[in-house]
Design brief:
- By secondary structure, this protein is an alpha+beta fold.
- The chain has nine helices and twelve strands.
- The strands form three sheets. Strands 1, 2, 5, 6, 7, 8 and 9 form a seven-stranded antiparallel sheet that branches. Strands 10-11-12 form a three-stranded antiparallel sheet. The protein has a two-stranded antiparallel ribbon with strand order 3-4.
- Helix 5 packs antiparallel against helix 6.
- It is elongated.
Amino acid sequence: MRRFFPVDSLAEDPHSLILGFPKATKAQLKSRLKELKKLGVQDVSFEGPMVIDKQNVLGKGYTGIVILAKIGSKKVALKIRRTDSPRASMEDEARLLEAANKVGTGPRLIKSSKNFVAMEYLDGKKIFDWVKDLKGRGRAVKLKQVICKVMSDCYKLDMAGLDHGELSNITKHVIVGKSVTMIDFESSSLERKVSNVTSATQAIFIGSGLAKIVRQIYNVPSKQRIIPVLRQYKKKRTQASFEKVLEVLRICQAKQ
């Protein structure tokens, strides 16, 4: 049973550590609480796989802490900027997430401000845990469907000129639940050369712990077959070259 607390509790111990992680003055906490209320955040909850000083959170990164919150009756994932974050505000991350949303990828951006990003809450498992727990008949088909969605989203991002930036470590950056959604656009860029399709392919099929599990579930083509089509895709990022990657990987057959 999820327990929600009034947003004011974030300014009080022990929850104030989350609002101003790793250290904040009373004035900073007061300012941040006012900012949250202006966004319409009314309630917060402390649950999730990560623990900060005995408090559970949905996620923790070098720029922010993510917790479950409510805006009205709607559950949202609330990202709180760390006080020691290398970024001066959350505005760039919100802008990049909005760019991802325009091509139908990423959690939906709901609201943002200097220190906060409120986005669609995704109830599911990180892709590594989902694949690891995949059991029973038909698991190869389910796996291919999930990977097909990931690769299709990567292609959309490539076409939009938005590089995710963290897909070489894809295990933490895709949530599988009712939908399959790429998350965490804090390291994304519209300036870098895009490498979403190539990074995701290498992470899922070639060089990671995830790749080893994927190979146990279905007969993945050899590295010697995958690398040439990836190189061709890097030279010409076209629909045809992308479909050739999918063909070699033997996913998305229904779309070809």
